[in-house]
Fold this sequence. Notes:
The structure holds 3 protein chains of 3 kinds.
Chain A: E1 3-10, E2 13-20, H1 25-32, E3 51-54, E4 57-60, E5 73-75, H2 89-96, H3 106-116, H4 125-132, H5 143-163
Parallel strand pairs in A: 1-5
Antiparallel strand pairs in A: 1-2, 3-4, 3-5
Chain B: E1 7-9, H1 14-24, E2 28-31, H2 37-42, E3 50-53, E4 63-66, E5 69-72, H3 78-82, H4 85-90, H5 92-99, H6 104-107, H7 112-118, H8 124-131, E6 135-140, E7 143-148, H9 149-152, E8 153-155, E9 158-159, E10 166-173, E11 180-186, E12 196-205, E13 208-217, E14 224-225, H10 227-233, H11 243-252, H12 264-288
Parallel strand pairs in B: 1-3, 2-3
Antiparallel strand pairs in B: 4-5, 5-10, 6-7, 6-10, 8-9, 11-12, 12-13, 13-14
Chain C: H1 26-30, E1 46-52, E2 58-64, H2 66-70, E3 74-78, H3 80-83, E4 109-110, E5 116-122, H4 125-132, E6 136-141, H5 148-153, E7 165-170, H6 176-183, E8 187-198, E9 207-212, E10 218-222, H7 227-238, E11 245-248, H8 264-276, E12 280-283, H9 286-291, E13 296-307, E14 313-325, H10 335-341, E15 349-358, H11 373-389, H12 393-400, E16 409-410, E17 416-417, H13 422-432, H14 435-447, E18 451-463, E19 475-481, E20 487-491, H15 500-512, E21 519-522, H16 540-567, E22 574-577, E23 580-583, E24 591-592, H17 593-602, E25 616-621, E26 627-640, E27 645-656, H18 663-683, E28 713-718, H19 734-750, E29 759-760, H20 765-773, H21 794-798, E30 818-825, E31 832-841, E32 844-851, E33 854-863, E34 866-873, E35 879-888, E36 891-897, E37 903-910
Parallel strand pairs in C: 1-12, 8-29, 10-11, 14-15, 20-21, 27-28
Antiparallel strand pairs in C: 1-5, 2-4, 2-6, 3-5, 7-15, 8-13, 9-10, 9-12, 13-14, 16-17, 18-26, 19-20, 19-25, 22-23, 23-24, 26-27, 30-31, 30-37, 31-32, 32-33, 33-34, 34-35, 35-36, 36-37
Helix pairs in contact in C: 10-11, 11-19, 15-16, 16-17, 18-19
Amino acid sequence: MSEHQISVTVNGRPLHGQVESRVSLGDFLRIDGGYTGVHLGCEHGVCGACTVIVDGKAVRSCLMLAVQADGSDVTTAEGLAEPDGTLHPVQQTMREEHALQCGFCTPGVVMTLAALTAGDARPTEEALIGALSGHICRCTGYQGIRRAAKRLAADAGARAGEVA
Amino acid sequence: MKPAPFDYVAPTTIAEACAILDEAGGGATVIAGGQTLMPLLNLRMSQPFILVDINKIPELQGITKETGFTRVGPVTRQCDVLTNADLARDLPVLVQAVRHVGHHQTRNRGTVGGSIALGEPAAELPATSVALGAMIEVSSVRGTRQVAAHDFYLGPYMTMLEPDELVTAIRFPDWPANHITLFREVAQRPGDFALVGVVGALAIEGGAIARAGIAWFGMGPTPIKARQAEAALIGQSLDSIDPAAIAALALADTAPFDDHHATAEYRRTVGKRIFASTLGAILTLGEAA
Amino acid sequence: MNAPEFGATGIGAARYIGQRVLRKEDPRLLTGRGQFVDDIALPGMLHVAFARSPIARGRILSIDTTAARELEGVHAVFLHADLSKQKIELLSFFLMPIEVPVTLLADGRVAYVGDPIALIIADSRHIAEDAAALVEVEYAEEDPVVTIADARTGAPVHPTTEHNISQEMGDEEIDEDLDAALNGAAHQITHHVTHQRISQSPMETRGVVASRDGPEELTLYITCQSPTNIARWMSMALGLPQTAIRVIAKDVGGSFGLKNTPWKEETATVVAALLYGRPLKWIEDRYENLTAANQAREAEMTLRIGFDKDGKLLASHSDYSSNNGAYPQGADANVAVQMFLWGAYKIPAFGFLTRGWYSNTIGLAAYRGPWAMESLARETALDTAARQMGIDPIELRRRNLLTLKEQPAASVMGLPLEDITPAECLEKLLAYFDVAAFRREQAEARKAGRYLGLGIAAYIEPTGSAGSMPVMTGELAQLRIEPTGQVTALMSTHSQGHGTATTMAQVIADRLGVAYEDVTVFEGDSSRGGFSPGAAGSRQGVIGGGAAIKASDLLASKVKELAAHLLNASPETITITDGMIHVSGAPEMSRSLRSIAEIAYGEPARLPEGFEAGLEAQYRYTPPPMTFTSAAHACTVEVDVDTGFVKILRWISSEDCGTVINPAVVEGQIAGGLAQAIGTVLLEDFHYDARGNPTTVTYKDYLLPQISDIPTFEFVHANTPSQSVGGMRGVGEGGAIIGPPTLVNAITDALAPFGEVPVNLPLTPAKLLSVIEGRDIAGTGAGTAASHAPAPVEVAVAEAPVAAVAAPVPAASTSVDGDWQITMVPPMGPPQEMTAHFATDGTALSGYLESPEGRQEFTGSYDGGKVKFELKVEKPMKITLKYDLTVDGDVISGKVKLGMLGSAKLTGTRIV
Lengths: 164, 289, 912
């Protein structure tokens, strides 16, 4: 099997590695990068726990090979909070809304919401809920996740209003 | 599970990709978005010797309007279809269908060509290509050929594509600006393959149907063109159409089967209903317009 | 006792208890800094994968591991013979031996698809899987037993058993009087319920990292429900001293019963680590989780109920069967189903037969509310009966539920009931939800061809169990006020998402008078907390909370004693508020807790005489044996009669879990259980084909609820304090128990115009369309049109007249006098040996039973070879044992009724 030298930017820092072609981006981030917040829940693209942001878009890191991410800019749940520990608005909102229990699916949910609310995006609540159908949470019955999505959509709308 | 070992190559031209497929002699598998292939690799249900990544071939990307058709590069991401203004205007039902493909996260990597080339019979895009009369452009070192979508599918995950061939474009023929579309999918959850679905377009001239393209998904071993229904619709004026009768004709072309999620009888029963109700609804809209 | 007041608040003025405090666990989990088992990497660690059986049943003819061993990067390939070098005996959750021989890797036979055959140790998981694919096995395949129906007639799954019944309790023949009561009832129904197989599906699969640290120490990182329980289990299973085993599980990604105890793969990895001497990691992938991790539910039940002309319950009989699979984590006839079936209802007569069956499928494990079938069967049967009798289903429940005013009382199975409130929860629910308005809406909708339905269900749930079984213990709280004035708590509780580090800190902060932020709770490490069975049976809030209160009170007393001494005040005048110590009436004397703590640790000379230095306290709290939680739920649905799809419109939970420590956590538990209930009713279905091949092996086919499947739940809380310290009642399992009948009832109500909906879960669109269309669209073969007719009373017809069976006539010369060697086969646990001594005087009988546990004397009767006597016992609970034996020469046999536990068979011989 082939091996490949790859370089990825993860949370603003370079990550270089020699990877077998069959290694998924998820395994590369976890094992080579130590980004263990990337959780592999099913490895067949349904549960969403492994979701990371690649070049601005939320994708399944179990459905992408590490070698395919060569040269990409990747963000994981470890890369969202401020250096002083201040939570990212998505993380803070999810905390306030009790949107997690065991926390295994959580980093994936955080990354989808972070991708869709980044910058001056103004997602509707429906758009966020629609995107969240790509995440399985077995603990919460989605109650807090739904509340968080609702608030984040409203906040994004309010932000856009301020700018305008 | 982790994939079995394979070699990985990422050619940058179609010619290079075709040469690799030719040399591999059937041992290569093409990866585009990988949103269906990667699970199969991870589960070791697919064990190629070489994985040919076509994501770095610029010729395979992008959406361009050409005379008589819209050319969709196979590596066009599904998410890019959703934001393409030309498609929204020219081929609204393709955009509508893509909204139902997988989830937000898989649409961000999944491609139009990947879905069409794979040939899952309950998937949205193969049926949409059949309904709209798409031509699938297929290339190899032996040359390039155009295959009509309705001839392309042979069975579940089985297509006309030879092991050395690559889908290099999907050509969606133009539909008149005032064409009306139908789309209805019954699936257990958002993102699931359809239990039963129907997709199509109707062109109207002078209050009568001039052209009809309708296909089922989840109603047989391949996407199924509703030939009898299409033929019956041609020439009929909108107010004279009996949706239930057309639905019965459409059903006659299907060959649904039982699986874990639903029975063939369920698919027939519900398929006929959604066909009739969806057709009825758009005819009403068409008359109003 | 006086009945408590419904809805009374448990804890008085409290700053944190009862508040939606932000969780302490969340910052690390939200930032990807949780520590799950796959996040552990140890120096020198190798990776494990398993080669597994592709067939459901057969003999292994040969295994060839040559190619696997020769693969580069492979360190070892272990088979059963290799792992057998370590003594190992798998145990049930109750720490009992498993009833059939179970080995870690196949020992000549395979009994289900996925049965592990070889364990591969390699440099990476990738290579280990490569090698697993190279293990070549030849089989002599046999026809498998897959379903309960197969098990009844098929060849025994295990060579060591005579049939496929894993466990049986109750009466094989229905009691004559009960049968007569049922047949004589003004209204009778016979209600069948079929429950599919469920995969618990925690988002973190099973996994373990095992490290042998020298010859006498073993460190395990394992995803589990209690590290201390795993340490105890491993110690017993491996025969190693527990002190050598340290178990760590900081964060656990859900469990729901699956991770109660380790099973084949985890234990095999531990044994391999002991034998191979390198740290080993096995992380179950999702395919394995769906094809080899133990599963749950798959059961069927026939419930007969007789009502009087007013709809009052007269009698009931239940026949329940559970598919235990090949290697259940303890053979299980699920007697709890019978025990709680009529727990909240007034019914004079009840009998049951309850059985577990072996099959060539994955073994049975726990799943949130393992006995939930009782609420499903009862509450759906009541709605069916209500329709047949023409009584409103709410009214039917009002006539039969036990109210708070009627307590104390005992259930028909002898459960002592002192403060259950399902009737009151129902009334509170009805005060919140306008049923009449819904009925109007429903009628209007039907005119428009839309089918709405309302489902209501009520139940009670045993929680906080302690003291009745050896493994179900109390909880330990160990508290320290550090020299910094901050509080450290080591709790025996453990969270798999429960948020116990939050709720316990709330309790401690309140009771000690410190800020929530100043309390840190450590759990998840067997070297820190005391023994606990962990999250099993909705118990941690009740018992851990009680322990935290008691330990906090002890520690507060200690602080007050020291402060009083230092400040020259009396302890009664000292209060602790927000980390400050105050003397009443003397604000100038206030001191920080820290200043007192510094003295407590660092200035022994200033301490009162006899005062133990430091500020530390611990308390192990054991609550009353059972604490009941009650609830009534309502949900409304719309069923699309064109497609059979169900849309849930509203869902209201009216529950009484006593003192609520954190409403967000309580509602989270209920909501999570309800989501699983919705999955159970509409989506989830683990399926095997006729050859025992699993057909739902990914999450594309095993459908879990997504966000769009779950409505926004509405909560009505009643807070009747329980009798445990703090007044909490458990809430972990309730949603998964009461959710299914609530939703089924709503669907059935919506489709009532089309006939009864067979309760055969899941209610897929195809099954519902079968009811709507009156023909078999789902391919289940179930008659649907016939369901318009009243349910047939099938069981009664099948009964043979009991009088026709001639009792064996004992030999006239038989005497029972003397000593007998007797073996009793109880429903749970191993057979028990005892000696019996009988002496007769006419028909009067006296004697004693003697076993290693002691001697118990009795009196009874002896007549025509029939020996009858009763014994009262206190353990495992207060029950009366009724012996009914027959003497035939030198052989004695019969059975003993064990109260609500069913009955046990006895056989014996005369000691000559």
